[in-house]
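re: ur msg from earlier - yeah i can do the zinc ion complex, just paste it... oh wait u already did. ok heres what im feeding in:
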Amino acid sequence: MNEEAAALLRLQEIDLSLMRAEAQLKAMPQASKLVTVAQAKKKLASELKRIVGMRKDIEIDIDDLQQQHARYEQDRADAKASIEESGKSYKEVQALDTRLSNIAKQLEKVEFKLGPLLDKLDQARGAEAKLNAIGAKLDEEEGSLRDSFAADTTQIRAEIKSLQEERADTLEDITEGVLADYSAASKRFSGLAVERMKGNVPSTCRVKLQEDAYRVLVRGPEITTCPYCHRMLVVEEL
Ligand SMILES: [Zn+2]
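and the outut:
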């Protein structure tokens, strides 16, 4: 068998081993718990975004009202100062009094709106803090799941690493075209991309080849295509 055909068969073995190892990792109890934690974190993040948006809106409203309040207070101080100035006529003083009582009404209105908003702000901040606390707990849980996952999978991860290294070496003996065919077939046949001729029977589909077809294949290249299942087929010259 030539080097490339041997490498191709080894590549398939490596990839099947990698698939089994990855499946084992996925089957670890920590893996599904990590998925659950990730989903919870995502849900929490969107809830937090909503609450933070709400809190910011409330803060903007409060800021507006506080600015209005400050302006009315300034108006009141100005009006009071004017009343105390000497030389004001009775009419002028009366107008300033009316102005002062209007300002007092406006201030009352602003304060009336401000009260509930401050309560709302407290509530939003409380909700935000609660969500952040839940987030911290989820981060902690995620961390300990990751640690336990790492501890329980040391061996299998080492195996994956060594398979990946061997895979990289193996690829050096395979041409680009053959690798592209392999990748496509591997997807199509769930990893069982290459079969081997055993006698006149391909090893995976096991459809016995007619004598004529067999002769044609044996005379052709070592890496070819199975006429039945269309997997890649390694044919060794006899
Ligand atoms: Zn076949």
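cool cool. The mean pLDDT is 95. ping me if u need the other ligands too
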